[in-house]
Specification:
Low-confidence stretches: none
Strand order of the largest sheet: 1-26-25-24-23
Distance between the termini: 9 Å
Largest sheet: 5 strands, mixed
Strand content: over 45%
């Protein structure tokens, strides 16, 4: 029997299954993060100190990889047989068809950003193209389309934004189009819809919003979901018109982390009220009308928060837990029911 709270919202059952083996960076080193295959067959955990731990879809450790020295951005091939990373002033592509074999560099290209900096790397859905988002010294951004076999530049589109930004890339279902989100802190977010035809790219539309994070597309690719500090919205492709909006429950603020799974959206939020000890919650919304369909308190310690999440299935996700005192992090596996 499914239980509900006093407002009729399903009370999700969320269980922390176990820690994932492996040492993550602590202190002020680079933040660890998790990334999973869309079919849930594998999980990568970047440790934050130049290493990657790999797991199968059940969370069983399969390998430990060492990235090149001072490696920055990381993108994993869709079939997990290799990866691309930013290091030594350029992009490298590495192949590792089997977990028991060492990674072999297959291509490297020095890229002069003329005083700018790299923001994001992302393979397309079949791994035959590689996106590189960069920031120019003038403050605006560029999205480069590369051939991962040679790292030759195929095309480039201009992105909106300001200086000192971060970026994320969302792949639109049913093709190679991409949604580029450039975030500039409290100055706002610039969301650019980039259309792809063969090896040609075109910036179709750029919208400037209050700070938002793009969580993903619906199955048809005609709408995407964006998360603000205290609201969730569904927007159209490519114009970013607001189709629906929902406020997060009272006293909750988003962690800017969430994902689209089927016809639902999952959001990680925390309780910001003075009476609260900062509990972390998982919220589930229906994309169709942005109605709140489920929620659960994760039961973390007051000084522990979720800094990244990757879903392996509709019922299972991995998370990076960050603790303030002492300053340490760990990866864990969770299951959701309800």
């Amino acid at each position: 029997m499914v239980s509900t709270d006093s407002t009729g919202v399903t009370a999700l059952e969320v269980k922390r299954l176990r820690d994932l083996d492996g040492q993550l960076a602590s202190g002020n080193r680079a933040h660890p993060f998790v990334v999973s295959a869309r079919n849930g067959d594998w999980l990568w955990v970047a440790t934050g100190e130049g290493g990657v731990l790999t797991y199968d879809g059940r969370g069983t450790a399969t390998n430990s990889l060492t990235l090149p020295a001072e490696a920055g951005l990381l993108a994993v091939l869709p079939d997990a047989t290799g990866y691309a990373c930013w290091h030594a002033g350029g992009v490298s592509v590495w192949s590792q068809p089997r977990a028991d074999q060492p990674a072999v560099q297959v291509a490297h290209r020095d890229i002069d950003l003329d005083g700018g900096r790299p923001l994001q790397l992302q393979f397309n859905r079949d791994g035959r193209r590689l996106w590189l988002a960069t920031e120019r010294p003038e403050g605006w951004g560029e999205l480069h389309l590369l051939d991962p076999r040679t790292l030759s530049s195929l095309a480039c589109a201009e992105l909106g934004g300001q200086g000192d930004a971060g970026a994320s890339l969302g792949l639109r279902p049913g093709g190679d189009d991409v949604l580029a989100e450039v975030s500039c802190g409290q100055d706002g977010s610039w969301i650019t819809a980039v259309g792809v035809s063969g090896d040609s790219v075109q910036a179709l539309h750029t919208s400037e919003l209050d700070p938002h994070a793009v969580l993903g597309f619906d199955a048809g690719g005609t709408r995407y979901v964006a998360l603000g500090q205290d609201e969730l919205s569904v927007r159209s492709w490519p114009s970013s018109d607001e189709l629906a909006v929902a406020q997060l429950p009272d006293q909750l603020e988003s962690s800017w982390k969430g994902t689209v799974r089927g016809d639902c959206v999952y959001v990680v939020a925390w309780n910001a009220s003075e009476e609260s000890s900062g509990e972390t919650e998982l919220l589930r919304y229906r994309i169709a009308d942005l109605s709140l369909a489920g929620r659960a308190v994760l039961g973390l310690q007051a000084d522990v928060s979720i800094s990244d999440v990757a879903w392996l299935s509709d019922e299972c996700f991995a998370a990076i837990e960050s603790q303030w005192r002492p300053n340490r992090r760990r990866a864990s596996l969770w299951r959701v029911h309800g």
